């Protein structure tokens, strides 16, 4: 009978020891200790805390138009290319370096299309895209090869609205028309994004 009197005290002591161990482990976690891995390489990746804005598909497609502005006329620019630059997070929550892909050359109506699959690019298979921007990349016409920032063609048009293509696990983004000109004074360059 006498031993049952010590049971509550033993439980309290056991609880205090466990709580102390947990508190000590929590306080030393993530403060630079290598935990026996002194030669482990240091990571220069930034921790990406917010997970809002993750693009919910492994394949993204981007479409838009590219024009040449001549006076007050907009002429579809055949053979022009847009560039899409994205940011992402890896499976552990760290930011990736920005990565880019180019569109196919625009057709005779100025229409371009770009397609990117994370699964097809080594090192990005387990990443999630967080944000992408579209830029003017190149013009096919020497007489009209000065990019303008109309619809953020130079600083980067943020990809925001999309539609889901059924059965393809693909998000299709549409971008406002981009414009080249032949006049350097109309370029209104503000600096490039990312």
Architecture blueprint of SSEs:
Layout: H1 7-28, E1 59-70, E2 73-76, E3 81-89, E4 99-102, E5 111-117, E6 128-138, E7 146-147, E8 157-158, E9 162-165, E10 170-174, E11 178-181
Number of helices: 1
CATH C-level of the domain at 59-180: Mainly Beta
Please give the CATH architecture of the domain at 59-180.
Sandwich
Q: Assign the CATH topology of the domain at 59-180.
A: Immunoglobulin-like
Approximately how much beta-strand content do the residues carry? Answer: 25-35%
Low-pLDDT segments: 17-52
Let me know the average pLDDT: 75
Structural class: mainly beta
Strand tally is 11
What series of H and E elements makes up the topology? Answer: HEEEEEEEEEEE
Rg (C-alpha, Å): 27 Å
C-alpha geometry: elongated
* Main sheet characteristics: 7 strands, mixed
The CA-CA distance between the termini, in Å, is: 74 Å
Pfam family, one: Pollen_Ole_e_1
Signal peptide: 1-25
GO cellular component, one term: cell periphery
Keywords: Signal
What does this structure look like?
The chain has one helix and eleven strands, in the order αβββββββββββ. The strands form two sheets. Strands 1, 2, 5, 7, 9, 10 and 11 form a seven-stranded mixed sheet that branches. Strands 4-3-6-8 form a four-stranded antiparallel sheet, with no helix packed on it. The protein has one helix at 7-28, and strands at residues 59-70, 73-76, 81-89, 99-102, 111-117, 128-138, 146-147, 157-158, 162-165, 170-174, 178-181. The chain has a domain at 59-180: Immunoglobulin-like. The termini are far apart.
